[in-house]
Specification:
mainly beta; 51% strand; globular; 1 helix; 4-stranded antiparallel β-sheet
Length: 151
């Protein structure tokens, strides 16, 4: 019995070690709303080896957001090549009746699908995010964040 518990624990430990978080950070947005010209920037740490990574974009919102989905432009830039990845993320926030797609009382947290990207050894870069919505200013979104997991 003890041997089975030990093997089970080792399996969980090894499964947990498959991915590691390189960066997980959120930045607050102004209380008056997220203006289309406001770009949220996250500086990436310099990596010691080439890595395949997965990027997730996170949003934190108030209980009532007022829009069904949001479109975001996500750019990965480095100091030498300029923009090396540009993607548009369409983000569902509520269903057709206006009910949020996450649980929460006063705030809700959303995370996008996986966005794969590659970081080269010694490079430093920045992830830049801005919204692509018709409204000049989005209200109800309180924070934008990123999470980068290495494979």
């Amino acid at each position: 019995m003890m041997r089975r518990a030990l093997w089970f624990s080792m399996g969980l430990f090894l499964a947990a070690c498959n991915k590691s978080t390189l960066l997980h950070s959120y930045k607050p947005l102004p209380l008056e709303g997220w203006d289309r010209r406001d770009t949220i920037c996250f500086d990436l740490p310099q990596v010691q080896k080439d890595i395949d990574a997965t990027l997730y974009i996170g949003l934190r919102t108030k209980a009532y957001i007022g829009i069904q989905n949001v479109a975001l432009a996500v750019e990965l830039t480095d100091e030498t090549a300029g923009i090396c990845l540009c993607d548009t993320v369409h983000y569902p926030l509520t269903d057709a009746e206006g009910y949020t797609l996450t649980r929460g009382v006063n705030t809700h947290q959303y995370e996008t699908q996986q966005l794969p990207f590659y970081l080269k050894k010694g490079e430093q870069g920045t992830i830049r995010i801005h919204h692509l919505m018709a409204n000049e200013t989005l209200t109800g979104i309180t924070e934008v964040g990123i999470k980068i997991e290495t494979k």
